[in-house]
Amino acid sequence: MTYESHRLSILSDEEIQDLYGLPQFNDEDRQLYFDLSPAEKAAAGAIRTASVAAHLILELGYFKAKRQFFTFEAENVENNLRYILQAYFPGREVDDIKSPSRPARVSLQKTVLDLFEYRLCDTEEKTELEAKAQRFAKLSTQPIFILRELLQQLTINRVVAPSYTTLLEDALKSLQAAGQVLGLFVDESISPELPFSAVREKEFLLLDKEQFPIVADYMRKIAFDKGTFEWAYYATLARAFKLWIACRLFLTLAQQRQ
Predict the structure, then answer these.
(1) Which of 131, 178, 204, 223 could make an S-S bridge to 215, C-beta 3.0–4.6 Å?
(2) pLDDT at 139
């Protein structure tokens, strides 16, 4: 499920970057996050190749910072790798360091998880996460509250947070179901003679009965940002207007050449 920019969102782009973006370290950050404990030094020392060992230290630093794993290009981590080489592999150059293979990266991530006593958010964890989201929804109808509570629970349970999209789905799933329920009232395929009880049965297939009061309460309280909606609409008009200008310019030039 994809939540595009014009759809309901919970976190700002800056907040999403703060949670899920590749850490951006300065020199002080590097000294802090790439400092190794005895157990971490032992894990890095047990690796035969400098390239893989350096990437383990890189993964350790990033995990300390955000409790996340990242996919990155070599140029995006060059300064951090250079610091790691100077600190732990003197004489080595960044150009000597090769990116580990996918199986090697999986192995490195497992080592990081073991060192921090964390685990990945697997299918069972995601099912439990969805159940917790439903429980949190009974305390508050604000999606931001639900999301923050889920993140806190993941930290307490030492579980790596799933993607933002997964958390967004859990926090907004009831609202999406409510939209489908509303769609029943304009569904022309439903006969006007169909008893209301039959329509209600269809509603309960889309949204659990006990969730209706929660979602209804949220929809009554949610604020509609008219200004944001209008500017988003103007942005779509601006793209169409630019295309119209380009077409007019092209036609004018074509006529001048004739």
Answers:
(1) 178
(2) 65
Q: Per-residue b/e over 8-45, b at no fewer than 16 CB within 10 Å?
A: ebbbeeeeeeebeebbebeeeebeebbebeeebeebbe
**Within-domain flag for 5:** no
| pLDDT for residue 217 | 56
Is 242 part of a structural domain of the chain? no
| Domain count across the chain | 2
For residue 78, the tally of other CB atoms under 10 A from its CB is 13
Q: Are residues 143 and 213 in the same domain?
A: yes
Q: What is the mean pLDDT of residues 75-99?
A: 93
Q: Which amino acid is at 120?
A: L
99 contacts: CB under 8 Å, gap ≥ 6: 51, 55, 74
Most confident of 53-57, 198-202, 242-246: 53-57
List helix spans (H) across 138-225.
143-156, 164-183, 196-206, 212-221
